[in-house]
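Protocol step 4 of 5: obtain the predicted structure for the target chain.
Materials: sequence only (see below). No template structures provided, no constraints applied. The aim of this step is simply to have a reference model before the mutagenesis design in step 5. Sequence pasted as it appears in the construct record:
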Amino acid sequence: MENNICLDTDFLVAFLRNDPEAVQWIKQNEEKCTLATTTINLFELHHGAAKSNKKEQNKEKVNQLGQRLIQLTLSAKSAEKAGELLAHLEKTGQPIHIKDILIGSITLAEGFAVKTNNKKHFERIDGLNVL
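Step 4 output (structure tokens):
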């Protein structure tokens, strides 16, 4: 198992919804691993909270979760990597959503694996360890 793990939006949504598998995974790994997310993931979570019927309650949950995790941000290094990844995937006819490119490049540049339920997209990013 990786020691540095970036949690993707779909996994975090499952955790916030008290999905038993996601909750169990966090319990098993939070002490022995460095858990993080990206600011892109936080953006996606805040977007979902703003659209929900329980806007304030969900916003508070996202804020609390964000405080528990290391927040990885877009740097010049990860922006360069994102541009290269997108160009490569476009050339090979396998583009993925720009948010996933950014999340993947930030995660890769920072030396983290990614924990996601969207393995199909992230596995297209060479060098990224997808859990």
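Step 4 remarks: The CA atoms of residues 94 and 124 lie 8 Å apart. The two ends are 9 Å apart (CA to CA).
Proceed to step 5.
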